[in-house]
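In response to the reviewer comment on reproducibility (Comment 2.3), we provide here a single inverse folding case reported in full, input and output, so that an independent group could reproduce the run without further information from us. The structure tokens appear first.
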């Protein structure tokens, strides 16, 4: 099983989309292993978006991520990173495919509702950035054997 990070951005919190988005992941069959509300800071965003530090939109991106608290989620499933990333859609919501979260709920390149990890390596680093080990819970979903075949998990 793989774990991945989802951040419901201030654009999701403000627009009342938190429940709807978590519902999509639950319905897909992903297990919610951790979830909390947190106020992001300059320091954590400098790390989290280090790959964008030189971009002209870095300041507005950080401000947009601090506008309200975010909801951080740890989701688990077989190949969860790529499954959640595919559900997310392209960065710019205006180009994102209908049926994806961004393609269904947003019109913006920056106010694009969710952050999702883009590789297993980044997922591991991001989960340890946003969660303490004791905030990730190990429990088995009663539906597990109806979610995967015996040789899949
Ligand atoms: P991703 O969220 O699809 O992985 P990244 O390239 O990692 O995209 O960028 C992180 C975040 O930075 C995006 O989700 C978006 O909020 C913001 N961003 C990316 N490119 C632009 C841009 O060209 N203008 C404004 N904001 C951007
Ligand atoms: Mg990214």
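Designed residues, in position order:
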């Amino acid at each position: 099983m793989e774990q991945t990070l989802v951040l419901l951005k201030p654009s999701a919190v403000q627009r009342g989309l938190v429940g709807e988005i978590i519902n999509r992941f639950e319905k897909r069959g992903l297990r919610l292993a951790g979830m909390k509300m947190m106020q992001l800071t300059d320091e954590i965003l400098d790390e989290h978006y280090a790959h964008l530090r030189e971009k002209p939109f870095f300041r507005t991106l950080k401000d947009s991520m601090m506008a309200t608290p975010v909801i951080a989620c740890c989701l688990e499933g077989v190949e969860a990173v790529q499954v959640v990333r595919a559900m997310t859609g392209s960065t710019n919501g205006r180009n994102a495919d209908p049926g994806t979260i961004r393609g269904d709920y947003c019109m913006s390149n920056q106010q694009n509702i969710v952050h999702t990890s883009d590789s297993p390596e980044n997922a591991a680093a991001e989960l340890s950035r946003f969660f303490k080990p004791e905030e990730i819970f190990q429990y088995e979903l009663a539906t597990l054997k109806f979610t995967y075949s015996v040789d899949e998990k």
